[in-house]
């Protein structure tokens, strides 16, 4: 980690804080200038890579957490680690009500191309590509007209009798097996990364679990790294009872004070700009330690600071600017997706969770709205499907976005 300095008094020579050199980078999936607080997850994946390299069986990995804690960023970092080790990699983002075959085919096509560069048997690579194409073509409906049929863009003739049964579970096991065998031949592995994994359709998630189970039993060098909302383990468990033993689960949470200070202080220090202790206190209070918020408030504070060092007054002045940007891009974009009935449900949750960031009983929402619980089920289920709330346990509901309740309470509707 880079060193940084924290100024507690003004330096003798004052310098403007150049906005062009602002190191902070708020954005969806945007890697922060300092990836703080994720050493445990990175080290655990390094162990996975090394064990697979030695032919040892290893479980696939699942990252869970609220939005804004950096799951997508961490997925990208794990992918980079695999690429540096010569692995074939592919990444997809699951979407509700979307078939998995097409994005999965594209991701594994990328992984196979990575492996083909090192493989000495072109015929074997083409054979695997043929199986992959056969798997992909099953995404087309049997009665689809020729002009409407999707072509996957894989430069190989489709194989027959392998991964083309139309049963996603059978086909995925066969496809994963062949791709893993190709990786084994070149002494490496394959990492398939799936973001928003909770949105994978039930049949597809069941097939993924079955394929991972088959691979773990054979010690094949292919691992799935999934990321999703906190209820993802429950989704996997409902699909296959053995999923709790199939994956290694890692809960990604907000940063503690030490790591949050590093996330702020290290990039500021690398730009040879100081920041006061009081400013660090204020930034942690504003952000709550959530990585996305750290970037948003850090960027606004840097831009607001007229002189070196950045002070708590700069943070205070910048806070409305950061909150306005979050209100539009982080909170507002999600809120706009909700129907009037769903917004009513969200606002009731916000009122019931005032002063805290945890969940609420669905029965309490019904009481608050003077409605029967059954009449609110459609709104709740739709909000879950849209990824705005999640149910960690039966009868409880919580926001997927930290500080969302505060945002709703201050909207003035």
From TrEMBL:
Pfam families: AAA_16 (PF13191). The keyword GTP-binding does not apply. Keywords: Heme, Iron, Metal-binding. GO terms for molecular function: electron transfer activity; heme binding; metal ion binding. Transmembrane segments: none annotated. Residues 184-373 form the Cytochrome c domain. This is AAA ATPase-like protein. It comes from Tamaricihabitans halophyticus.
């Amino acid at each position: 980690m880079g060193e940084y300095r924290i100024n507690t008094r003004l330096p003798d020579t004052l310098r403007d804080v150049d906005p062009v050199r602002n190191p902070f980078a708020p954005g969806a999936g945007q890697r922060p200038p300092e990836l703080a607080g994720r050493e445990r997850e990175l080290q655990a994946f390094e162990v996975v890579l090394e064990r697979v390299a030695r032919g040892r069986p290893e479980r696939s990995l699942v990252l869970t957490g609220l939005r804004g804690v950096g799951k997508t960023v961490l997925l990208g970092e794990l992918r980079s680690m695999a690429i540096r080790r010569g692995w074939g990699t592919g990444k997809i983002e699951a979407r509700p009500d979307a078939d998995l075959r097409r994005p999965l085919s594209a991701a594994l096509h990328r992984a196979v191309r990575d492996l083909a560069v090192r493989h000495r048997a072109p015929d074997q690579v083409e054979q695997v590509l043929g199986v992959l194409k056969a798997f992909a073509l099953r995404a087309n409906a049997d009665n689809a007209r020729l002009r409407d049929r999707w072509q996957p863009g894989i430069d190989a003739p489709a194989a027959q009798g392998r991964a083309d049964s139309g049963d996603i579970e059978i086909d995925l096991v066969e496809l994963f097996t062949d791709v893993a065998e190709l990786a084994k031949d070149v002494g490496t592995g394959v990492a398939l990364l799936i973001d928003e994994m909770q949105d994978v359709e039930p049949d597809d998630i069941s097939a993924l679990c079955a394929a991972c189970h088959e691979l773990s039993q054979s010690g094949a060098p292919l691992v799935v790294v999934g990321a999703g909302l906190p209820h993802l383990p429950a989704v996997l468990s409902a699909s296959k009872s053995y999923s709790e033993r199939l994956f290694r689960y890692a809960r990604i949470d907000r940063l503690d004070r030490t790591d949050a200070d590093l996330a702020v202080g290290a990039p500021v220090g690398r730009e040879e700009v100081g920041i006061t202790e009081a400013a660090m206190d204020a930034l942690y209070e504003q952000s709550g330690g959530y990585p996305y918020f750290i970037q948003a408030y850090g960027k606004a504070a840097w831009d607001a600071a007229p002189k070196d060092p950045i002070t708590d007054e700069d943070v205070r002045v910048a806070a409305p600017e950061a909150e306005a940007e979050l209100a539009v891009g982080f909170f507002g974009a999600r809120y706009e997706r909700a129907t009037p009935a769903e917004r009513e449900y969200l606002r009731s949750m916000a009122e019931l969770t005032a002063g805290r960031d945890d969940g609420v009983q669905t029965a309490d929402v019904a009481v608050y709205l003077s409605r029967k619980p059954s009449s609110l089920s459609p709104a709740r289920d739709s909000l879950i499907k849209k990824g705005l709330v999640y149910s960690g346990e039966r009868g409880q509901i919580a926001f997927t976005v930290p500080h969302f309740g505060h945002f709703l309470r201050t909207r003035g509707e």
